[in-house]
Write a structure and sequence with these properties.
It contains 20 helices and 13 strands. It is α/β, with parallel strands linked by helices and 589 residues long. Among the domains are: 83 residues, Arginyl tRNA synthetase N-terminal domain (Gyrase A, domain 2, 2-Layer Sandwich), CATH 3.30.1360; 93 residues. The strands form 4 sheets. Strands 1-2-4-3 form a 4-stranded antiparallel β-sheet. A 4-stranded parallel β-sheet has the order 6-5-10-11, with helices on both faces. α1 packs across α3 and α16 packs across α19. It is globular and about 90 Å long. Belongs to the class-I aminoacyl-tRNA synthetase family.
């Protein structure tokens, strides 16, 4: 089915046509339509237009109003102040537009006019290292952006740029070579993520201790790095064991997070190894990079160190080794040249902003990025504890991500259990809903904050039924599903002929805004805007539920059907919006 024009776009078109008619010499003009507290919409564009045409804005506004038909879409228009238009929509138009949305699987949300190919770089753990709270935001924000962009029709390529290369592997591989059974599993049964991480932790600690205490081992480990970079088959096969063991662990954590990570999407630092020499050659030959004290560097006028001297991006070190910049630049070449990307999104900690600014500028100078291909860092802030400081354990250690998720599920399960008897949940449903609510709470707390800001991790608040939490949204959805189950023979039917109560109008107008909001969240890379929309939708629904009886006391048949229709569309919009954020909506809660 074709997308459904929103009420805002329909009104915008009417006002734009009237503006063009009243002042044809001005050409196409944006009415600057905004949502308003005084009416449903306010058009603010006449003021600037009158100034340009040296006309009286209030007189021009009156002429424009005379050229706008009312009755079907627009109920009334009032000229306010120095030429603002306050516009009220008819009840009929609200319900007819919503009925058209309800008849579409996509809820009338349009596909983007010119979709491209976006590569999103997110969820980037390190091989042989435990995932901690710092890995949470990249995974959660990135996964939501993937879903939102795909829903708009964009082709999205996921990339998990795991840390699977570098000097530390020399130490690990050499130790495994000398202690060959350290990564063996106890049985042939499927290995758990915890067991895989325990193996890796044990091996890492043992190899580190030996590296620090035994000079001969240290020499052998460093030689092993050279073998790894040279592609020695035995060394590569041992390295692969670390990667495979780490993936067992990674996937178990992502599974807890209810995230689908596919093997082909995991392309770590090693994936660009064969391109590094050519990347350096292209940069040096084009003059983008120059040799400085033996290192291959890119300089920038606006990047200087504390001493006032230029701080370069080092692509290749003076000893011939490659830094992160060489890998990141090679990844850009691959993503643009081989994957056909029109946009690259990097969901990376804000503390790496300078690095990415320099990398993107280097890629632009080299011609790999241009007006047709852009790269952006979706930079995120830090997860803080209740005290406003970076989130740590009592011992000052970084918090393990699995511990955090397990505790969230445990707290959420307790909240679900309290209400379980009232809604008739089985033990299996309590456990399942505890997962959905706990993981949803963690994701929503992250996604309801602008990515660039730090946020406080407060589990008590996150699993609360009150306030801006995912549980509040999930509860609103479950309440609607309960109403639908208890509606008996009554079915949701749209009745455009009815006069709407204020709470029905407010809910209807907000439901109609869903498509525009999705487009905005996609364009601005801002999942928090979708979270805010859904919270407001739940709040408006709560007011509607309190003021407009749906089942009890039983309203007149057509009124009840129309209210059930609003309930049903609200539930579908909540469910779709939450799923785009990676959060599940239980049928009973």
């Amino acid at each position: 089915m074709a997308s459904v024009p929103s009420l805002a776009s329909s009104v915008n078109q009417r006002v734009a046509d009237a503006l063009a008619s009243a002042l044809p010499e001005a050409g196409a003009t944006d009415p600057l339509l905004r949502r308003s507290d005084r009416a449903d919409f306010q058009a603010n564009g006449i003021l600037a237009l009158a100034k340009k045409a040296k006309a009286n804005p209030r007189e021009l506004a009156t002429t424009v109003v005379e050229g706008i038909p009312t009755g079907d879409l627009i109920q009334e228009i009032e000229v306010s102040g120095p030429g603002f238009l306050n516009i009220t929509i008819t009840d009929r138009a609200i319900i007819e537009t919503l009925a058209a949305r309800a008849g579409d699987d996509r809820l009338g949300v349009p596909l983007a006019e010119n979709p491209g190919t976006t590569v999103i770089d997110y969820a980037q753990p390190n091989v042989a290292k435990e995932m901690h709270v710092g890995h949470l935001r990249s995974a959660v924000i990135g996964a939501a952006m993937v879903e939102i962009l795909e829903f708009t029709g964009e082709k999205v390529v996921r990339r998990h740029h795991i840390g699977d290369w570098g000097t530390q592997f020399g130490m690990l591989i050499q130790y495994l070579l000398e202690h060959p059974h350290e990564l063996d599993h106890k049985s042939d049964e499927e290995v758990s993520g915890e067991e895989a991480m325990s193996n890796l932790n044990r091996l890492y600690k043992a190899s580190r201790a030996l590296f620090d205490s035994d000079e001969e081992f240290k020499t052998r480990a460093r030689a092993r790095v050279v073998d790894l970079q040279a592609g020695d088959p035995e060394t590569l096969s041992l390295w692969q064991r670390f990667v495979d063991e780490s993936k067992i662990y990674f996937y178990s954590v992502f599974n807890k997070l209810d995230m689908d990570i596919q093997d082909p999407d995991v392309v770590g630092e090693s994936g660009y190894n064969d391109m590094l020499v050519e990347t350096c050659k292209l940069l040096e030959e084009s003059g983008v990079a120059v040799r400085s004290n033996g290192a291959l560097c890119v300089f920038f006028d606006d990047v200087k160190g504390p001493d006032g001297n230029p701080t370069p991006l080092i692509v290749q070190k003076s000893d011939g080794g490659f830094g992160y910049a060489a890998t990141d630049l090679s990844a850009i070449r691959d993503r643009v040249g081989n994957l056909g990307a029109t946009e690259l999104i990097y969901v990376v900690d804000a503390r790496q902003s300078l690095h990415f600014k320099m990398v993107f500028e280097t890629a632009r100078r080299a011609g790999w990025l241009n007006d047709e291909v852009k790269a952006v860092q979706l930079a995120f802030g830090t997860v803080l504890g209740k005290d406003g400081k970076p989130f740590k354990t009592r011992e000052g250690e970084t918090v393990r991500l699995v511990d955090l998720l397990d505790e969230a599920v445990e707290r959420a399960t307790a909240v679900v259990r309290e209400k379980a008897e009232k809604v008739g949940l089985t033990e299996a449903e309590i456990v399942e809903n505890g997962q959905y609510v706990g993981i949803g709470a963690v994701k929503y707390a992250d996604l309801s904050t602008s990515a660039a800001r730090d946020y406080k991790f407060d589990l008590d608040q996150m699993v609360s039924l009150n306030g801006d939490t995912s549980v509040y949204l999930q509860y609103a959805y479950a309440r609607i599903r309960s109403i639908m189950r208890n509606a008996g023979n009554r079915k949701p039917v749209a009745h455009p002929e009815l006069e709407l109560a204020p709470a029905e109008r407010a809910l209807g107008l907000h439901l109609d805004h869903f498509g525009e909001l999705i487009a905005e969240a996609a364009a601005d890379h801002a999942p928090h805007k979708l979270a805010a929309y859904l919270y407001q939708l739940s709040s408006l629904y709560t007011t509607f539920y309190d003021q407009c009886p749906v089942v009890k006391p039983e309203p007149e048949l057509v009124v009840g059907e129309n209210r059930l229709f609003l309930c049903d569309l609200t539930a579908r919009t909540l469910s779709k919006g939450m799923s785009l954020l990676g959060i599940r909506t239980p049928e009973k809660l």
